[in-house]
Design goal:
- The protein is built from 23 helices and 8 strands.
- Strands 1-2 form a two-stranded antiparallel ribbon. It has a two-stranded antiparallel sheet with strand order 3-4.
- The radius of gyration is 27 Å and the shape is globular.
- It starts with a helix and ends in a 24-residue tail after the last strand.
- It is mostly helical.
- It is 54% helix and 5% strand.
- Helix 2 packs antiparallel against helix 3 and helix 16 packs across helix 17.
Length: 693
């Protein structure tokens, strides 16, 4: 396998070269004044005051794109564009009103072709067309990600991983452009469907090629001890086939369009021979290795190409292992919920906020967290539909000293210094969990960041093989007289997941269900809790602990929350007349069945009493939405476009508003945007601005 793999590495033409694209340029345009006047005229001055901060931030983002963009690092360019896209989606309904209102001030967008801005056909302009604006911003997000990928060091596993994530993000932005946002837009050639699909295929090919390079590197060094030689050959053959198809599609789209060929050659005449060489090389390799592709019946049940991560237990450096941990576990903390209110109202780390009185705030894109919030959680006198769960308690533990000594013992003093910032953050976050004076929103932020840190160190630490491993002590949430003490990091993660779920139920019960905002916040909090209790068994089954961490208990709590969500949905405005209460009752019965099938001392009597009472539902009357509801719907759409598929977790480690950054190969605390400010005591570590390029 090793010799054959080495032969495959050499003939690749231009293995070091990757293609990147420039960003589109635009002319200034004033957005704040005409849009605010429109809201005041169409709705009311009160509504205009509620959304004017969003309009100010929208205007500032666009001004920075015009005036400052070239001076920003790639990461800051990405942050600015994402922020602007979210603002655009929020104000989109206003542009429909502008177009239909003859008395409104016109808004004309000008965008220049990214490849040939000086060409006579290199500029497009449309009046009141937010579709052109959104398409151009998505194009630039893909372009910036391509530049991030090209700037990484492809000779190291860490650089290849970062570049692969960046090219994948670029491919996904161009996929969105191709499938949704370029349709119906009359613009320059770079925004046509042909170009959007070609760029999607190109960057998918480059991301897959980097992934293949890492596979070949690992196989050459016998790093992949899990897969058999046949599976290794199969995986490589499938990769060659996939890369060939991507390059073939990109080439066919460009070579089949005379205008596209002329356009690309005028920008960079080496693109065409480069694409042809790549297509030919991978076509030959795909043919030679096709016989190694195994039939589906011979593949292991759990085998998937998606399970292969370039970084992990066999990575070349500690930093790479930590990034492998955060990337492979990202799905765990990205809660599968439809709502947005939990972060918009409560989190100090969401730049978009809903304040008391319904005012919307969009903090500047270059302003680091924490972001101020003044929305108070007030309990309602209305009978609550919600049962809150208690938090698990834990004993203090000085993680920093223990883990740092472990790094020195297992690796070296220099390695321990490289992760100093991460260990300080980990220790501080765990200490904060013991405090009784934290508000529910701050405690949630603390638990989320601590869980991410635990995921980062998981692939590095097999806690049982260390000389003096940390001993985690946690008490049963329902029966505090019972406790468990273990070395396993899975025990710590399971306990944190339990507390995340329980905390969200406490947020939900604190909401005023007689208001539409409180109703939505409660539903979002329960959706969050449902996610945490749904994934809790993944960690709980790896340890033997107190009963509250048993798989059966986690499933029962998840079913209770599912029933409570259905209960709230049934009581949502205008829904009572078309919905039956039967499914809600059945969900409560399902939770009750899980309760009675478990140990008698599983939970206190309050839960069975609650379930017995909840075999019926009651209604809640709430208020209709206004212009802010339209803005929030747009924000939801932006989140679905940006967050779910186009934000690889390791790229966030370069963001200058994140809590932890990679700087010169080390993990450091980012005090500009750090949760290290919790409790007012900042961690003693300064970080200068970091750039990738």
């Amino acid at each position: 396998m090793s010799n054959g793999t080495q032969r495959l590495l050499n003939p690749n033409p231009n293995p070091e070269r990757v293609l990147k694209i420039p960003v589109k340029k635009t002319d200034p345009v004033e957005l704040y004044r005409p849009l605010r006047n429109l809201v005041a005229t169409r709705y009311s001055e009160s509504d205009a005051q509620k959304v004017e901060n969003v309009l100010e931030t929208l205007n500032k983002c666009r001004k920075d794109i015009v005036e400052r963009f070239g001076d920003l690092s790639f990461s800051m360019q990405r942050d600015c564009l994402i922020h602007y896209f979210k603002c655009l989606c929020m104000v989109e309904p206003l542009f429909t009103a502008v177009s239909s209102d003859a008395g409104s001030d016109p808004i004309t967008f000008f965008w220049y072709d990214a490849f040939l801005p000086e060409h006579e056909d290199g500029v497009s302009s449309q009046r009141n067309s937010i579709q052109l604006e959104k398409a151009a911003v998505l194009f630039n997000l893909g372009a910036v990600c391509s530049q991030i990928g090209a700037s990484c060091d492809h000779n190291t596993a860490l650089g290849r991983h970062l570049a692969m994530d960046a090219f994948n993000a670029a491919a996904k932005f161009f996929f969105k452009l191709w499938k949704d946002f370029a349709k119906g837009v009359s613009a320059t050639l770079d925004l046509t469907l042909v170009f959007a699909e070609a760029l999607h295929s190109l960057f998918s090919a480059q991301a897959s090629e980097l992934k293949l390079q890492q596979q070949l590197h690992d196989d050459n060094n016998n790093n992949d001890a899990v897969a058999s030689p046949a599976l290794q050959q199969h995986r490589i053959a499938v990769s060659f086939e996939s890369i060939f198809k991507h390059y073939q599609r990109a080439g066919d789209l460009i070579f089949g369009d005379s205008a596209a060929i002329k356009h690309v050659c005028s920008f960079d005449e080496t693109w065409i021979p480069h694409l042809r060489q790549k297509k030919k090389y991978f076509q030959v390799q795909a043919r030679q290795t096709r016989s190694s592709i195994l039939p589906e019946s011979q593949l292991p049940e759990t085998f998937s190409l998606l399970q292969y991560y370039p970084l992990g237990h066999d990575a070349e450096s500690v930093t790479e292992k930590l990034i492998g941990g955060i990337c492979s576990h990202a799905v765990l903390w990205r809660a599968k919920r439809e709502g947005i209110y939990l972060d918009l109202i409560l989190s100090e780390y969401s730049p978009f906020k809903i304040m008391d009185g319904g005012k919307l705030v969009a903090n500047p894109w270059d302003m680091p967290p924490p972001y101020p919030t003044n929305f108070a959680i007030r309990s309602s006198s209305f009978p609550s539909h919600i049962l809150a769960f208690p938090l698990k308690k834990t004993e203090p533990l000085y993680l920093y000293g223990i883990l740092r000594n472990c790094f020195v013992f297992k690796y070296s003093e220099s390695v321990a210094e490289s992760v100093e910032g991460l260990l300080q953050m980990l220790n501080k976050l765990r200490s904060e969990m013991l405090r009784d004076d934290l508000s529910l929103p701050v405690r949630r932020d603390c638990l989320l960041h601590y869980f991410k840190c635990l995921c980062m160190i998981e692939p590095l630490f097999l806690m049982t093989d260390l000389p003096n491993p940390p001993i985690f002590v946690w008490y049963d949430a329902f029966n505090p007289q019972q406790k468990s003490s273990q070395h396993h990091i899975h025990f710590e993660k399971a306990s944190v997941l339990f507390n995340l779920g329980a905390l969200c139920t406490q947020i939900a019960i604190s909401c005023d269900l007689t208001t539409i905002q409180g109703h939505r916040l409660a539903k979002d909090a329960l959706n969050d809790a449902s996610h945490w209790f749904f994934i809790l068994p993944l960690e709980a089954k790896k340890v033997s602990a107190t009963i509250d961490l048993s798989v059966n208990c986690a499933r029962m709590l998840h079913e209770i929350i599912s029933a409570q969500i259905a209960d709230l949905e049934w009581n949502f405005p205008h829904s009572r007349s078309d919905r039956s209460s039967l499914p809600v009752t059945l969900l409560y019965q399902k939770a009750y069945a899980l309760l009675t099938s478990g140990p008698e001392n599983l939970v206190p009597s309050s839960i069975p009493q609650y379930l017995e009472e909840k075999m019926k539902t009651c209604a809640v009357e709430t208020a209709p939405t206004d212009v802010t509801g339209q803005f929030l719907s747009g924000y939801c759409m932006a989140q679905s476009v940006i967050r779910k598929s186009c934000l690889p977790p390791c790229l966030d480690l370069h963001s200058e508003v994140g809590p932890i950054m990679i700087k010169d190969g080390n993990f450091v605390i980012n005090l500009r945007g750090s949760i290290g400010r919790i409790g007012g005591d900042e961690l003693p570590r300064d970080v200068s601005n970091m750039t990738i390029n």
